[in-house]
Records
---
Amino acid sequence: MHPAYSVILFTTASGAGYGLLALLCLVGISHGEASSLVFGLTSMVIALGLITIGLLSSTFHLGHPERAWRALSQWRSSWLSREGVLAVVTYVPALLFGVVWSGLYPAPDLIKPLAVVTGVLALLTVMSTGKIYATLKTIRAWHNPWTIWVYLTFALATGATILAAVTSVFGNFPAFLVWFSSAWLLVALIVKLGYWRSIDAAPRDLTMGDATGLGRLGQVGQWELPHSAPNYVQKEMGYAVARKHAAKLRRLVIAALVLAILLMLAALAVPHAALLSMALALFASVVQRWLFFAEAQHVVTLFYGAKAA
Amino acid sequence: MTSLPPPSAKKLGLVIDLDTCVGCQACATSCKEWNTQGYSAPLTDFNAYGSDPSGVWLNRVHGYEVKEQGQEQSRIVHFPRSCLHCEEPACVTVCPTGASYKRAEDGIVLVNPETCIGCKLCSWACPYGAREYDQSHGVMKKCTLCVDRIYNDNLEEEDRLPACVKACPTSARHFGDLGDPDSKVSQLVAERGGYDLLPEMGYKPVNKYLPPRARRDATTSRAEALPKPDGSAFDRLFQWADKVLSPKKAVARANEIDHSGRLEG
Amino acid sequence: MTQPAVNTSPKTWDEVKTTTCYMCACRCGIRVHLKDGRVTYIDGNPDHPVNKGVICGKGAAGIMQHYSPARLSKPLLRVGERGAGEFKEIEWDEALGLATEWLAKVRAEDPKKLAFFTGRDQSQGLTGWWATQFGTPNYAAHGGFCSVNMAAAGLYTFGGAFWEFGEPDWKHTKYFLLFGVAEDHGSNPIKKGLGQLKARGAKIVSINPIRTGYSAIADEWIGIRPGTDGLFVGALIHELLTAQKIDGDYVLRYTNSPWLIIENPGHADDGLFARTPQGSALVWDSHSNSPMPALSPDAAPKLMGRFKLPDGRRVVTAFTLIAERFLDAEWAPEKVSGRCGVPVETIKRIAAELARTAFEEEIALDVPWTDHLGRYHEKMVGRPVSMHAMRGISAHANGFQTCRTIHLLQILLGTIDVPGGFRYKAPFPKPAPPGVKPAGKPGQVKPNTPLPGPPLGFVTAPEDLLVDGQGTPQRLDKAFSWDAPLAAHGMMHMVITNAAKKDPYGIDVLFMYMANMSWNSAMNVPDTIRYLTQKEPDGSYTIPKIIYSDAYASEMVHYADLILPDTTYLERWDCISLLDRPISEADGPADSIRQPVVEPERDVRPFQTVLLDLGTRLGLPGMTRTDGSPRYPGGYPDYIVNHERAPGIGPLAGFRGPNGRAQGRGTPNPEQLKHYIDNGCHWFYELPEHMKYYRHVNWAYLDWATFFGFIGKPEPVIHQLYCEPLQKFRLSAQGHGKVVAPEQHRQRIASHFDPIPFWYPPFEGEMVSEEEFPMHAVTQRPMAMYHAWGSQNAWLRQILSRNWLYMAREMAAKLKVADGDWVTVTSHHGEIKAQAKLMDGVNPETVWTWNAIGKRSGTWGLDPGSDESKKGFLLNHLISELLPEREGGYRYSNSDPVTGQAAWYDLRVRVARAADQEQVSEPQFATINPLARAE
């Protein structure tokens, strides 16, 4: 699948934003009001900023961004629509939560209920993003139980490192947060490894013969493409990263996550190391998301020369 | 209306005969010319007079080599591919805007170009590559089964066919109601073993493909040869010519030099 | 839930006009839909006899042809060097004035110094007549490099041929043999036919080195080695004769098989028919045991035997000689198998299947008819075996004889114009061969004087040749000379070479129409370009003036001095005439017109009207009244309606006479074109049932055809299995007859003008070393394209914007060529670089490509860096128009020795992986200064 940068940016940024938002809600539930107005506002602005940047970026991918509002209509059947609805709906409790939790408008009683509602909606939004991909039967690498967990864990892991990094800047940096975000990074790494293992093991058992139905006669190979220059389907669905290149990038993701964990642990001694850890975690998130597309083979490629999918 | 309507009794679709298609592209260009001024208009071309010219087409003809059991050489099968108007099309259910929909009355899958946001998700959901994104108009385009021809009051009855079907010079394309078991297309499918593409995807394509028939060549035909009589083939032919064609041969052969047809000396 | 309302009855047009397609040579009926004066949609006309509503990939892309950025828009005069692409726009008056000045001078001095050649011309009725009126013998269209072998072999054998001369009886045939590439001619009718065969389950056998297109759906594919089809067919004949599986009645009654041939070796009458003093051929009557005139109703002719005539001469029936030839062990399947690359069992099985289908699955229609001798037949009996061949057979140096071999097979099976067999299309059958002789003999070409007859025709004896006393060709292309005596379509492929070499003479003006002779229509492109720009010591061009008319900025346009821009096919009047290349159906004659459906918004004029205008300016008799005013002031449509070739017979056969009620023959009808338009731009006359078959010997039909002017007299067309005209040439090569072949041509004539079909290896393969050039290289035309026109079309070029060199996987493995490698292809003449694509369905000794896709950079309105010029290529660069030197230094054209058909399928090459793998084809020619460009 063609790795469109707008989609990668959207899913990683908004994922990190929702992850952070969910964790802030957790903080609100466990600790009540934010430790300071500045910290509360800053972290809320970052969370909602990432979400907003992500959502705006996703509209760049659209042919008609001005019609994006229409995407809210089909929540009954479409995960993309559900994601849009959830994203929009989440803003309401999230903004209220931010106002109350940061102390801009003190209402301690409302923190918990708003945090629960916001946190749940944030995670549901990330889950529905994952569902968009996981429900596509045409792409084996996505139509996989691990897909949703990859989206969720990377959202939370990157959210956690951002939370840690922001906290480190504000000086009040509990060791718990180091362990907490390191743990999420580790979980994300494990889930990603599990995902890769799963897609590598999944048999690519559909052939050109299956796609064309000509397999009933014998072995099928391509003779002539319909047109001599590549078309939309070939460019969008036919993108394939070389196996060797993909392996290198996988190692890069693993290395970045491991390093992010180590740096996060180092933050016990040097709090600002959390900033570097966050950068690496976000980098890893972007690269793994790029690979998520680039490694995914669409079944339509069988019509265009792929031997198996 | 991305939720699917209740299954319609009428299931309009195409039956494509892979045994007869010669790959002439008549269906592809006829589709292009009708639809570039029809419901999905226009079907944009990019770099039309430069390098790597490409464009939006709703029907494309592939060519495959198929190596059959027992055959030394592959055969080429021409394979037109377009929207199959599935009974359970994921391209419709994933659409976030309702621009993609399956018509309740005849099952045709359409995209409303007025409401499509061009998110491309439907093209990801389609295993058949039936949906093409027109970047110059920012919307998705696909086969409409010529919905603007098949019911068009301005056309003569005989022309109310999808442009590809009307054009096809070998009659390799058939249009009709596959929901009606007595229709010509349904009977054709039954007789010739018409099949679904990628049934494992579960989208229940309405369009059907008729498989190429078995060859009738050295690998399949009985070894047959004309009898080779003993003796001179020429003499035999001569006798045959004499007997079969000139039965009244009682007449004397005074001036005939050589009965066998050879000049002596 | 609501779904959006869809307008299912949009009216995307405000007007529909019928006309005739020109996206290839099929000439299907089309309906052009217009909105606000712009073409919006083109589909097939359901009422049209040719295509009955279907349309092909090309036809449906006609809009893009019409609105092509490559269209020329104004007359152009060359200002720079020839070929540099420097022109200035001029007005039509100046252009026509210049052309008239150049042409008038030639006509006043020596009319043959005008060479007038038209390419994919569909108005040869007019252009040939114009040349006649001008007085030059140097006229032809592109048939000489296209299909003259196919046409001539059929016309000399049974007065018809494949394609526009006839077609299989698609409705009844049960077994169809398809020889060679057929996708490019008669495309929709053949596709419709194949569809019918598929629907009925008839067997289709394709004999073709390449298994694409029609061959891909054949029930059986025989991947024969190029140029060996004649051997394969001969072996089938051998098998059938051996088993006496031939239609004896048919052969005896309707062919010259029983005709008596004089056996008098070494004498002037050897091999000629024994004739009565009145000229009638003789047969041996078995009742009276004596010779009788061949067409006497009472004769019971002997099919075989040798006899002594009362005057003592020894004679033999033609069939005896045919049997002797094909029963020879030389033709046994075992003997030909290796050379053809077809297994012995396959040949034997096909022969058996043919016999079984022809004789055990006989068809009999309940239609009584009467034959030429007045014999009444209760039924029309048919042998449901049919065949088709075109370029794949034609474009070999043995194509004439091979095509005759195929006809011999058809006739022995009794399957010409019978139910289930081959069917003639009107105006065929014609006498075999037709009676027209070419004009242009010494003394017939005179200043300011029309030729006494048409420049093209059918030579039947050496006396008919256009040569002088020394045997020197009178035509520039050497057609109808000893080089190519039966060159019925001329030899356009030799015109530029011969003009540049002044062999046999130089010319003053080269006038061409719609022929891309500096590119894909030329053999040997690099030298052709050199010839077009070659100069004399005094600095003038060897070909002094070149006038060219075309609608598009083709490669050839750039080499012209004066360009007369033509309209597109949707902007013109035309007639598809029975006097020219007909579009009739087997069920009856048909013709059609083109009408302008849109007005040109450019300053262009239809070539045919321009030609008539030039004719008037030159004062050509047929085009000028005695007062000097134009005979056809209304241009081409005026000519179409009012021209008469014979009293009552004009370009269009329909809607003649007062009120348009007459058909075939009738006075010119001023409303004729209106009638055609009202009838969908065509006319079709369905023959009554009893005239639909056996037309070569069908009394009623022959009478009717005489009235329609198709034939001069109601005489039967007896199939000439033994072709006496060829024997006359052989005799002249032995020194007999009034006109004797010059010494240097004798051996060639003696060996190739065999009156009985035979096979010889194509010349190029014989003249180069098999080891050095082990492979055959041929082209096919993609079904979605027609020549260079198609590959500039915005839609069609998306399908193929470049070509590849296809080769067999097993051969590629031997040559260490991988899929996608760039390879060099080398012939005795040149070398190209192309990208290889591997496949299975190709004869292993053959490589092939799609033709006419490669373009010269800067032409056809395409971006100079487009794929067509950077990755596309032509095999033409490898093909020499001349054969290697023979003894004495003479170089014959690379053509069939009988007809002069360009032998471009004889190409032999070697293929190797290129050292340079850069993604560019070679040779690359300098970019031409574009004359037209896309916005």
---
Amino acid sequence: MSKMHLKLKVNGEEKELLAEPRELLIHVLRERLDITGPHIGCETSHCGACTLEMNGKSVKSCTVFAAQANGAEITTIEGLAEPGTMNVLQNAFREHHGLQCGFCTPGMITRAHRLLQEIPNPTEEEVRHGMAGNLCRCTGYQNIVKSILAAASEMNAAKEAAE
Amino acid sequence: MIPAMFEYHRPADVKSAVSLLQEHGDEARVLAGGHSLIPMMKLRMAAVEHLVDIQDIEELRESKVSGDTVHIGAMVTQHELINNASLAKAAPLIREASLQIADPQVRYVGTIGGNVANGDPANDMPGLMQCLDATYALSGPSGERTVKAREFYESAFMTACEDDEILTSIAFPATTAGFAYEKQKRKIGDYATAAAAVLITMGGKTCTAASIAMTNLSDTPVWSEAAGAALVGTNCGDADIAAAVAAALNDTDPTEDSRGPVEFKRHVAGVIVRRAIERALSRA
Amino acid sequence: MNDLTPTSEERSAKLKGLGHSRKRVEDARFTQGKGNYVDDIKLPGMLFGDFVRSPYAHARVKSINVEAALALPGVIAVLTAKDLEPLNLHWMPTLAGDKQMVLADGKVLFQGQEVAFVIAEDRYINADAIDLVEVEYEELPVITDPFKAMEPDAVVLREDLAGQTTGAHGERRHHNHIFLWESGDKEATEDVINSADVVAEEMVYYHRTHPCPLETCGSVASMDKVNGKLTVWGTFQAPHVVRTVASLLSGIEEHNIRIVSPDIGGGFGNKVGVYPGYVCSIVASIVTGKPVKWVEDRMDNLMATAFARDYWMKGKISATKDGKITGLQCHVTADHGAFDACADPTKFPAGFMNICTGSYDIPVAYLGVDGVYTNKAPGGVAYRCSFRVTEAAYFIERMIEVLAIELGMDAAELRAKNFIRKDQFPYQSALGWEYDSGDYHTAWTKALNAVGYKDLRKEQSERVAAFNRGETRSLLGIGLCHFTEIVGAGPVKNCDILGMGMFDSCEIRIHPTGSAIARLGTISQGQGHATTFAQILASEIGLPADSITIEEGDTDTAPYGLGTYGSRSTPVAGAAAAMAGRKIRAKAQMIAAYLLEVHDNDVEWDIDRFAVKGAPEKFKTMAEIAYASYNQAVPGVEPGLEAVSYYDPPNMTYPFGAYVCVMEIDVDTGVHEIRQFYALDDCGTRINPMIIEGQVHGGLTEALAIAMGQEIAYDEIGNVKTGTLMDFFIPTAWETPHYTTDFTETPSPHHPIGAKGVGESPNVGGVPAFSNAVHDAFRAFGLRHAHMPHDQWRIWKIANDLGMHG
């Protein structure tokens, strides 16, 4: 079966490639575009390690065909900050020990990034509910929740200072 | 978990989508959010030769409340259902239920049309739609027809929707009735062990209308006419609720799975239906 | 000296050594998506390998037809047992002295077993080709119950062992029997139990589960035919052992094999074993001359690659009328699946199950473990635990609860009455261990006070009364656990894996400008070794942790070590680091003395420098000494500043802890809610409190999963019922409670810095705490024991069996 011409905007860069429609978005990113931040954990859309942002939504890219993503704007962990720098959330995860093996971390932070766009000042309950699509085997979530809440207050403080 | 090959189609309007379905018959499947279908394809448990992705069909994304009727396009996502203020007002039951479906990422892409059309008895929306007495609009080669949600489901994954039809939208009456969606599950992302959708209208101290539907307790969603009838005309006292619960359970036929054996599910169903009724009553 | 001279405290703080909650150096790359895990590795011309797996749990393989698969464009080869046989690689030795099929040789013995290995240009072609391999099976009777496996007329599972009445661990008394392993004094224990005032008896099942790290197992093998060098990147918790095994199996000399463990996305014991995928990727690379990647998917992982637990533990515990324990007996029927691939030290086929006397002074005990074959996946790995310690801790902590019921006694009081006292350490246990140090009573009292134990019991009895009056349908459970771990395997005299003694190692090089690199034989899977080992060294050698690079996992550069599992990194490699640091310091002392023009014995160590005794203003910092070691000829001293230490610990370490879980249970639905969880851990000297706390949170959450729902379940014909993360329970942030952590600090007397290890304690202690909370909630209604996992329907069933549903 024929390959199709795909156009994606990934982390601000236009990408064009040929792919079989059945190729999964996570594979296109990891294998063809060398964007290896998003990981493959469960392959059935339960773990969230492959989470990225597609057209402003948090999406599990193991359950998206490349063909469906044609024309989409995609942001992965690599696109959240300038290469070699860490944004507020990334720093907060480091500061509050919100990661251990690091495998869930890119999906976790990418999801948290969207969550804080939608709920800038969340309660702990909102964070736990909003992060429930991402599994972590190492941290028990307590420090992940702490990191996100800390990042939220830092972002809010910065916003207030700017106003 | 790698899917087999397929031909991909992305029609721009319903008519083209229908003609693709017509052309390819049972080799074709409609792709909405894909979070039920794609895992099945990755496990190679669903063989699909032609995948008809309906994401570009703008008309399927519309939802509006006009007068007493709520219209929701098939491609409206659960995330949008949760965040749509006018919908939350016209049918707060939808929001309460949507928050209990899957997880945040899945809700961004999971659509109401996909959820109801798939015919999976474990999906939450079908029971909800039966509770709301929704009507599904189906487009096929010979035009549009409507089917009541309460008549749509035949058995697991078998519905009144023909191979060459697309479910395009859903309509149901706006409601101010007391509502509740009560769901027991093992964890976020799991299907219901048992779930119940309840709407109750009280006229003074007497129940004037009641609708009770359940999820994952049979090979189709279960709308229990008898359970609703058991409440109507009563003051919803303890014995009346017990009668409604008994009637509801009588309409279920759960099967054993890793959530537990039949005996357990039936018992939990009774508890969940009762709690849903009590919560709906508290809001009626 | 002037005002600008930093104080001792300031100099010490600058090092970020022991006790400092140093931020992790690993995090910059992980938070930016720049980790390098196995599946991130991409080599030119790399091929993909994957398995045709058996849909049956027990079947004869009649034929395998690979023609259609080979005809598919992009398919390079399909390997079967026949292809591996000439290389003698169709079977491989297991870590437990058994052997395991690499590819199905005549029959399959568990669902998901590897039957053929397809090599193709990419994953997609590979998956299509797998569908085209035609395998003809003849189904055989399936055994998934270890007790049925031992019935006289049970079907023979391991035909390859026909007639072998002796296995790696002694006599096999039945064709499906693997070993009987015994510890303690059987007769004396029976005598004590038979004449005791009170005896409690119970069958305690610790169900089969799986470590399920978020990253599955995988490897990339690359045979460089020009140089004759094989490089394998893989998810290896013990890379050096893999190198030795690979050399022994392949015949390639060990110096021509390089094993690299890159970043590992969680291990929890899953990545200790050697799996057919590793072997096949290596063979495939040798055959094709190209790099070959194998990465399993989640179903493969849960179905085929290791399992944990599956111990049926039948116990008897005896006591005097007033609750002094007099004896303990335990017989285990251990379901090992199709091959005995347990990852235990060679002499311990049931791991350290004989730590099952727990925290208690039990004068006499006996343990017997029967290992049995069934049609389930092989494995038996230590899932966040030191070789069956979780099973042991669960067993004793359940037996204590059952004994408390038998005695009509409060379970907290019963524990306190029987703890090994502080003055009894070092303590010789009835089953042969020497506990190094402990102060159980202090920890226990602190824990009970912290949760307000008396008030909780009062609230609980009020709740029971309210329930009986029909005012509530919710019960309150108070789950207690006091556990003692045994970690840090181990003394080489007792512990080896495939003949390799379980020492560990550290090599340090100090650079001229006062920074350093240290390499160790371990490998982090999230524990933060690059952060904490640098802290140990910082305190030993006086260079800032931030100036010390830690490297692990590359066998071409790291010294030989036995790897990371069983909480052995801190007790063994951490000790090696300290000892290597001390060697550096000893040499530095000579250099400093020379530079300061005094005798070696006239200088003394002070945080980051050697100073002249009595004249602290005369000193040389470690950075100055490092520079001097490279640019000054010191008589009698070799240039440079390097050291290596291979550390063979004199004993294991024995971390312990006191946990309390307060749980609400809905009797009608089986739904639970954890209201409070308090965890006090004593892991000896604390290296990095932030990391310790993180380890405790994570281990408790794994314990929560195991106790409350996580299992590998089979149906009667051996189908795995829990093959995806829909059914295999891993809690999300929503189901996970908030934990309160606490500590006491009782250093290990034999460890160079007194550290004991902590990574596995919360799993070992957490499971009994959660499970005991469930049991405790129903104690007033007559429950003695109910098997885990306590998922909703099983909790509901407890209530239902007790007649609580009216």
---
Amino acid sequence: MVHLIGATLLAAGCGYLGFQAAETLRRKSRSLRQMAQALALVEGELELGSPPLGQLLERVANRSAGPAKRLMEACVQGLDRLDREDFSTLWRRQVAGLEELGEEGRAALSPLGDILGRYDGQAQREGTQVVRQALEKLAQRWEEERRRQGRVYQVLGLSGGAFLVILLL
Amino acid sequence: MQKTKASQAYRQAVGALPQRLRREALALSEADQGRVEELRLRTGWPMTALLPEGERSLGGVPVESRELEQLLEIASQASVHTVLPQVRQGYLTIQGGHRIGLCGTAAMEAGQIHALRAFSSASIRIARQIKGACAPVLDGLCPGGRLADTLILSPPGLGKTTLLRDLIRAVSWGEGCCPLRVSLADERGEVAALFQGEPQLEVGPRTDVVEGCPKAQGLMLLLRAMNPQVLAVDEITAPEDVAALETAAGCGVTLLATAHGEGWEDLERRPVYRALMEKRLFRYCVQIRRDGEKRSYHIEELR
């Protein structure tokens, strides 16, 4: 009986690891999409009339989700401490904490802090567009990766679990 | 009380400085904080404070260009794009009406300054409103209790703008005269100092302000849009300004304006003002003179 419970747990554990790996890919792709959508909102706001950065980030935060919302909110709060940390550094620091975007996603997003609020509306919009397109490409890549590898991870997890059960029993 | 208000204005203005420079500026005694007219920052030199007796070094570490960029970022709340038109003119108004002047390398585009970069100097001019500054002249300018067309005349630095602002405030409130709707063309934002649409220096409840456009255009806009009873403008400098004032006078609006000049005779020598005088647009001319430490006001009736 104990052997059976152990075997079930082992199979379930391995299966879980496989599903978890697939879920990580899905989450990464979703986070990148959410960030790209938030940047599309930034572009829209800049097109409407280039509001002050605090207002712009707040509006976008209210209409965003996931890491994008967290990033915008943290940056709005950071605007009160500009005498200690400039916006570019603040942005980079906050982006560095967004694990779910992956290294490439963070690398694409980081330089935007050097552009936002610093140049005229047109230049900011162009800069944001470039970053948004890079994130969309990344999201697409991860989505394909998820479709290709996600199923493999799930099957590998389940079959790995089954293999171990057979081996141990 | 006055001293506390003066040092409060100072503390508000130094809020735009990066942390290190702010600490240095706040190390001044409260009495000195209340007397500082400007803070001056020059790359490679310690920050200085401009006091009535002259410029005094605050003795700290030399200012870096990076800190001047930080000053602009703090002053604009990281939104330089919203103040670019002002920055192109070399200044920026912050909350409280304080003015930050900027110098650096100009980037030109089609013969106009497109941007300033590599900042070399900045000055923070602390705005302090003197309410009641117009009290010595108000009665003399309001025959029958209504403000008459008035030109304020003085050399730079004697308080033309301060007197103009206080006259606008008094007329708008109806202090010592009947209350009137005042429209102000404040090209450089020195009179009302709009910040996010709100005057940072009090100009009264019946005052409408247009800022950031050439005076002549601003005057015509106000005349068309706001139906003013008094039209106010700081520093008449161009023939277009005179033409706009002439049009306004033709519409029965009371004029209130300032001009740089030692006296009425001084104006007669300058072509722009000669036209103004020939047309006799103003009934009164207030001349501000320095009498030792104090200022004195002389009202002359012109027509």
